[in-house]
Design goal:
Layout (H helix, E strand, L loop, with lengths): L1 E4 L3 H18 L4 E4 L6 H13 L8 E4 L1 E3 L10 H8 L11 E2 L8 H14 L5 E4 L21 E4 L2 H6 L12 E4 L2 H5 L3 E6 L5 H8 L18 E5 L1
Parallel strand pairs: 1-10, 2-3, 2-6, 3-5, 6-9, 9-10
Antiparallel strand pairs: 4-8, 7-8
Helix pairs in contact: 1-2
Bound molecules: 2-amino-2-deoxy-6-O-phosphono-alpha-D-glucopyranose.
The site of 2-amino-2-deoxy-6-O-phosphono-alpha-D-glucopyranose (GLP) has 14 residues, from loops.
Length: 233
């Protein structure tokens, strides 16, 4: 695991954006795994800025988001679909058919999970995946206790995760479930970059750094991957 400590959130976002853009330059057909949450917002801002100068960035790229809430429409203001449009997809030249997000409003959720997992496999798997970190160590929506061999599936969100994600659901009705890539889905990515910024993540970062590998702490699965970079600020 490569650890990089950046001076602040801006520097972390610059570094993450540079990694993402360099990966597209070296392989324009790259398959990216993309996160949501507050942490990657400025990385996306930097990527959008760079791509407005250097168009065609995403012309041949393929993206798969890590997760999506269940039970809300894709155009709901709190959906990760809306998030991705607002922060990235509306400003880059990605072909919409290549920008994948699980559909949490699908009538058959298990079929949707299987379809998503197959869509990733059909393009040869994830190349570079960015992850945020939950304060409880979750990655994507894989909460503590998730088996490391898990694949894309429907999960129940913990109360602490629902509270942490309240800001986009003003009426307090954060969905109780989500579709998430599994830990095995994420670990199959050729390389992984984990982003963690701020005091709220310090405890989780220290636990990750301790090297203890446990299903009670999902991010610790990353120790089983040969190419992980952790950016902290
Ligand atoms: C949500 C997302 C995760 C994200 C986490 C941290 O639960 N599903 O993928 O990593 O939040 O979010 P934030 O960056 O806002 O702290």
């Amino acid at each position: 695991m490569n650890w990089e400590t950046l001076t602040d959130y801006d520097a972390l976002s610059d570094r993450a954006a540079k990694i993402l853009l360099a990966a597209i330059r070296s392989d324009p057909h790259i398959v990216l795994g993309l996160p949501t949450g507050r942490t990657p917002v400025r990385m996306y801002e930097r990527v959008v800025g760079a791509c407005s100068r250097e168009y065609h960035c995403f012309r041949d790229a393929v993206t798969f988001n890590l997760d999506e809430y269940v039970g809300i429409e894709q155009d709901h203001p709190g959906s990760y679909c809306t998030f991705m449009k607002r922060h990235l997809f509306d400003f880059i030249d990605i072909d919409p058919v290549n920008a994948h997000i699980p559909n949490g409003a699908a009538p058959d959720l298990d079929a949707e999970c299987a379809r998503y997992e197959k869509a990733i496999a059909d393009v040869g798997g994830l190349g570079l995946t960015f992850l945020g970190l939950g304060a409880n160590g979750h990655i994507a929506f894989n909460e503590p206790g998730t088996p490391f061999d898990s694949r894309t599936r429907v999960v129940a969100l913990t109360e602490s995760t629902r509270v942490a994600n309240e800001s986009l659901f003003p009426e307090g009705n954060v969905p109780a479930q989500a579709i998430t890539m599994g830990i095995a889905t994420i670990l199959a990515s050729k390389s992984i970059v984990l982003l963690a910024s701020g005091s709220r993540k310090r405890g989780a970062i220290e636990r990750l750094r301790s090297g203890e590998v446990s299903e009670q702490f999902p991010a610790s699965a990353l120790w089983e991957h040969p190419n992980v970079t952790v950016l902290i600020a």
